[in-house]
Design goal:
heterodimer; A: about 290 residues; alpha+beta; 3-methyladenine DNA Glycosylase II, Chain A, domain 3; Alpha-Beta Plaits; 3 domains; two-stranded antiparallel ribbon; two-stranded antiparallel sheet; 11 helices; about 10% strand; elongated; B: about 450 residues; alpha/beta; Rossmann fold; six-stranded mixed sheet; four-stranded antiparallel sheet
Amino acid sequence: MSDVIIYSVVSLSLIGVLAALILFIIAQKFKVIEDPRIDLVEQALPGANCGGCSMPGCRAFAEELVKADDISHLNCPVASNENMAEIAKILGKEIAEKEPLVAVVKCNGSPEHRPKTNHYDGASECRIASALYTGDTGCPYGCLGLGECERACNFDAIHIDKETGLPVVIDDKCTACNACVIACPRNIIELRKKNKKDRKIFVSCINEEKGGVARKNCKVACIGCGRCVKVCPFEAITLENNLAYIDPFKCRLCRKCAPECPTNAILEINFPPRKEKKEAAETPAGEK
Amino acid sequence: MLKTFPKGGIHPAEHKITAGKPTETLPVPKTAVIPLSQHLGAPSTPVVKKGDMVKAGQLIAKSSAFVSANIHSSVSGKVTKIDNVIDTSGYRQPAVIIEVEGDEWDEKIDPGKTLKKEITISGEEIRKRTEEAGIVGLGGATFPSHIKLSVPKGKKAEVLIINGAECEPYLTADHRLMLEKGDELMVGITLLMKALGVEKAMIGIENNKPDAVDHLTSLAVNYKGISVHALKVMYPQGAEKQLIKSLINREVPSGALPIEVGTVVHNVGTAVAVYEAVQKNKPLFERVVTVSGKSLKNPGNFLVRIGTPVSELIEAAGGMPEDTGKIINGGPMMGKALNTTEAPVAKGTSGILVFPASDSKREEVQKCIRCAKCVSICPMGLEPYLLNAASEREMWEIVETDRVLDCMECGSCSYICPSRLPLLDYIRLGKSTVSKIIRSRKQ
């Protein structure tokens, strides 16, 4: 009886040792040498796998970071500057300090400003509506409100407001990963510099039609009058194709342009209320 | 046994309520808005400027590329501006706007109604006249006709097919044309035959127009080489490839043109336009449009100048009914809803349909139940449910290899789908994206 136990224990142990030996040899032979820093870098990355860096996921981006000598051109839009500094420390490389960006929706055509001229009942996707016609209002540039950006966002940072039918960005959640910018078939969303206290001044319109036509279809359209260009002390505003554009990197948020705009197309967001000044009384524009 | 195509097809309710209504001539509009992009291909380049006086039939925009067409004024008057207007495509596009004064035609045009039968000019000249007159395929696709008339080297046309199928429900413009301008049509076909150098022409007509079949059969005996064929009532009988299959039992290969199988297809409207251009020197500036719909007081067929706003057509048909939900440019299957009634009639406008809201509303979309009805009715043998799903998920490679470009957008799949999936919407998206991808690959 005890023989059976001894035999089986011995034979099983032998098989075990043999298998371990084979495994050990194979493991040595086919060893993949991987830089341990890749794991570290990957851990330091946000792990959103959003594709905002134009690479297939965070792992690929981490590999690229470790491999490249100069990593200043590599940028994870989601990671904060501290995140990136930590990665730079792991790798012992220099990293470019980046300006934080935030998505901004450049259309303010809510139904009250931009009346509906027809009713769209096709497939509920912006890309399809956009490929069909000018849209359910007279403006062929404006937001279609069917939520392509909302579906594209991985961070729950952009939502269609039910009342205005326009997308609203939650600045704190927005990582500037560019997904909504790509998703929007009308190119309404732009990544702009994130200012202190989330302050923003921008032309909330991308209509390139002549002033009269644009104005007829939307009360808050940029009509390309150029008044903001003249008033800007920093040459931050340019006028092209009947459309003003405020360069977010030149703009110093002086707020001179907004009251000049005859159609209130320039939006100021998160600023303290304006003090009643003489000019302000003359131009009853102000906040919107 | 009536001829038909073997694969797929549907038979929607015909509603040809205007079939018995003779064509009425609509008065010249007060302002004509003539779009510069009324054809497939590049928009034309305007040759008039603000303030110019023009006559009906005068050239106002020149063909700007190989695939493009001339555009002529449809009215006489003063050019007030060249501006962007929303046309029947749903987009704002450049158009010449003419304030109408009187109705003076270009001197070269013969406005008489007498039939001019004898053909004095050569085939090449016929082709040139067609090009000068800005004639495009009037069936709806608006492909410039002169290109179809120049047979590429190494190819030979054996038979000319004339499309009188008019398979779309409601539309009767071609039907009326065949009844009212039968002789002109026959001469037009003879001209096209001469231009192509073919001895044989076949007219295909769906069998729901027996009067047109009889009328043209009786006329055809006087013209050499023309035969009339009744076809089974089956949508899309009037689609080019289906019509070729039905009439001469040849299959056009994927991506190829009908000339590949030795044939050229022209619409009956185009043939009449060629007659007018060659024999009467009249460029294409008016066409027959069916204005129809269940709630319209006076639906009918109207001879309309290009550039007349759609609102005037609806007015002529008894005004806009209260219950209107959609106005469609073209037939109910392939047509496109208009977003403004101020859109002008273009060369490709075969019908204006005013649909009550109760009929035009899209039904709620359910999940695909894999019933494969769309597969069995697709006349091109595609798998619409698959193209739909792949397009929705942006899997463009699958969309391409499953031959989305063979789709002619007949809409049969969306019509038959019991789950009311917007199949064609997504297939169109796939089609446009894949063509873009292919174009960028070539560069």
